[in-house]
Amino acid sequence: MNANPHRRWPHPIFLDLDGQRVVVVGGGAVAERKIEPLIESGARVVVVSPDITDRIAALAERGLIEVQRRAYAKGDLSGCRLAYAATSDPDVSRAVRSEATEAGIWLNAVDQPALCDFITPACVRRGPLTLAVSTNGRCPELARRIRLELERTYGPEYAALVDEMGKARDRAKEDAGLASEEGRTPDEPGGGTGSESSQPWLECERPSPVPGTVYLVGAGPGEPDLLTLRGRRCLESADMVVYDALVDLRLLDLCRPSALRFFVGKRSGCHACSQEEINGLLIAAAKAGHSVVRLKGGDPFLFGRGGEEAEALADAGVGFEVVPGVSAGIAVPAYAGIPLTQRGVTGEVVFVTGHDSSSSPSSVDWARYADSPATLVVFMGLDNLAAIARRLLAHGRDESCPVAVIARGTTREQQTVVGTLVDIAVRVAEARITAPALLVVGDVVGLRDKLNWFEGRLA
What we know:
Elements: E1 21-25, H1 29-40, E2 44-48, H2 54-61, E3 66-68, E4 82-85, H3 90-103, E5 106-109, E6 122-126, E7 129-133, H4 140-153, H5 157-181, E8 213-218, H6 229-237, E9 240-243, E10 260-263, E11 266-267, E12 270-271, H7 275-287, E13 292-296, H8 306-315, E14 319-323, H9 328-335, E15 349-353, H10 366-370, E16 375-379, H11 385-394, E17 402-407, E18 415-420, H12 424-431, E19 437-441, H13 448-451
Parallel strand pairs: 1-2, 1-4, 2-3, 4-5, 8-13, 8-14, 9-10, 9-13, 15-16
Antiparallel strand pairs: 6-7, 11-12, 16-19, 17-18, 17-19
């Protein structure tokens, strides 16, 4: 491999071994690691070794490989495309090297770079997608570590993505051929030239022959570390991120430097964008071929309007995926030391919005929940806290029922105020609690004194 002193680095290539004979000399654990990727590539694998592992024997029994139970002999490489010397016997490796040189066959001698014509990289396979890592034989352990990182970043879903984008590319090529026959260029779908703009988001209005996907990602309750692994992968590969006010901006550091970022949230009662405008942005960006992450606080399908956005995407024929997030309704009480259910206390929990109207057909039925031992978790209820308490009391909830209001839950600024339905509004006003805040109503609040594990660390 080092015959040419001027060739310092290997040249990466991918070989089509389908139906090709590949000989592996050796039958131990090292040979196993070489054999299985060869089987995946469609090669006709022949193992030459007097001793083989149980795994290699099992592959032979299934007809996936051929095994010749004997020592290597000159001529065993006849007719093969590649060869591997996966043996601990240096004399055998040198003999295989000699035959390979005479026959013009490429050889990989495991852990013997001086005898190698090529190096097998550490690979991640996702269907037709193959990611390969090599350190030129210098540090295989580092290559394996990087491979593990790639496995975490590029999950099994990428196999389907390659197929989908390949089919879209084929359709685009067919459309391009048709466009040329009609006397216009493929870059001009309507035959004209579009105007350029200094505003990059206007690029979203230009349809692409390869449509993108929108990922409705739950950012979690506040603390960036509570983002799911799937959510992180989506952010790391996104072309565009559309995010809300409750999203911790440190999560945007996970994005690629080239990714476009759009704030569409609500601050101080002011909407940066209407829901219709957000829907339109997502649809246009995907149709322009972008991979779009719609990053929403908590879980997108729990008071996050993710269902509305998914419905709009479906109506527009845009592909989407929902990536659930850790809901504030579960995480914030946990960080305040409040289990939502507890044996002997309650086995029911109800999530409701505190930002409703009595005239709305989806208005919360406070009377039903007042006459129940269920824990109530109230989202967006801070502004209506006093009214909510009055409604529950009016419908029969006990005056001593404990209530907790937790502001900026799971973050270092978390603040919790505890009271009863009678005095909670006054206590919250005195503490000057501001949104975002979550309300928890029920006897489980009484467990906080014993289970408050997080806030003591903030002192």
